[in-house]
Automatic annotation (TrEMBL):
Identification of the protein by name: Carboxylesterase
Domain Serine aminopeptidase S33: 11-211
Any one Gene Ontology molecular-function term assigned to this protein's record: carboxylic ester hydrolase activity
Entry annotation: catalytic residues: S91 (nucleophile), D191 (charge relay system), H218 (charge relay system)
SUPFAM superfamilies listed in its UniProt record: alpha/beta-Hydrolases
Length: 245
């Protein structure tokens, strides 16, 4: 089963947040790249994730729990002597990475990959979660009766969760113009999960943005764009002091 990871490689540390139906493995390639370049990398697992039952995400998780985990991640790194802390998030993680840039003083800079912030339609996220859930139950080889019973439960609960996520997203988007820290935006032009144009809107609002587009789909940290993304993130981090000047 996937687990959180901490690559303790340098005084500067990066928190890496995963997606709604993903795990810390979404960010493992990014974490290893950072480790090779003497950055420590910490990827927590959002509560409810990393199990073999998607219902756990809806029953155990939620924006309040996940935001608490982001704050705990900052404290975890401080406890390990890290004072230069940065944060990046993929998809769902992008919401909380941005909130951290806005609200947590210890976060010096951050960014997003495939962010749903300012994306008007969450129906694709709903559809993708239902598809993900079906695949999980097929892999588990549960009976058809049990599979459809669980899928009915998920179908009855997913909308309430998305409303809660949307509420958090709206509060984060209201403060975008106040961001003064360096802010990285990575967006796939072939993204089918969130509207690629939403990233352009965010870039037009955040004055400190470093905006990059990739000829790729949603999960930039592991798809065809991941090496290009990693290079851009490293360049962004290496030039933080210049951006703050």
């Amino acid at each position: 089963m996937p687990k959180p990871f901490f690559f303790n490689a340098g005084d500067k540390a990066v928190i890496l947040l995963h997606s709604f139906s993903g795990t810390s493995n979404d960010q493992r390639l990014m974490g290893r790249m950072l480790e090779r370049n003497n950055y420590s990398a910490y990827a927590p697992m959002f509560k409810g994730h990393g199990t073999n039952n998607p219902i756990d995400i809806l029953d155990s998780g939620g924006p309040d729990e996940w935001w608490k985990q982001v704050n705990e991640s900052v404290q975890f790194l401080k406890n390990h002597g890290k004072n230069d802390i940065y944060i990046f998030g993929l998809s769902l993680g992008a919401i909380f990475a941005t909130k951290a840039v806005e609200e947590i003083p210890e976060i010096k800079a951050g960014g997003v990959f495939g962010s749903p912030i300012l994306s008007n339609d969450f129906s694709n996220i709903r559809d993708a979660f239902m598809t993900y859930s079906k695949k999980v139950y097929e892999i588990k080889e549960v009976s058809e009766t049990d599979k459809y019973a669980d899928l009915r439960i998920i179908d009855s609960k997913i909308d309430a969760m998305l409303v809660n996520i949307r509420r958090t997203t709206n509060s984060v988007s209201d403060n975008l113009a106040e961001i003064k820290k360096p802010y990285f935006i990575g967006q796939g032009t072939r993204d089918k999960m969130v509207d690629p144009k939403a990233a352009e809107k965010v870039a037009s609002i955040v004055g400190t943005r470093d905006f990059h587009q990739y000829d790729a789909g949603h999960v930039l940290t592991i798809n065809r764009a991941h090496k290009e993304l990693e290079g851009d993130v490293l360049n962004f981090l290496e030039n933080i002091e210049d951006r703050n000047a």
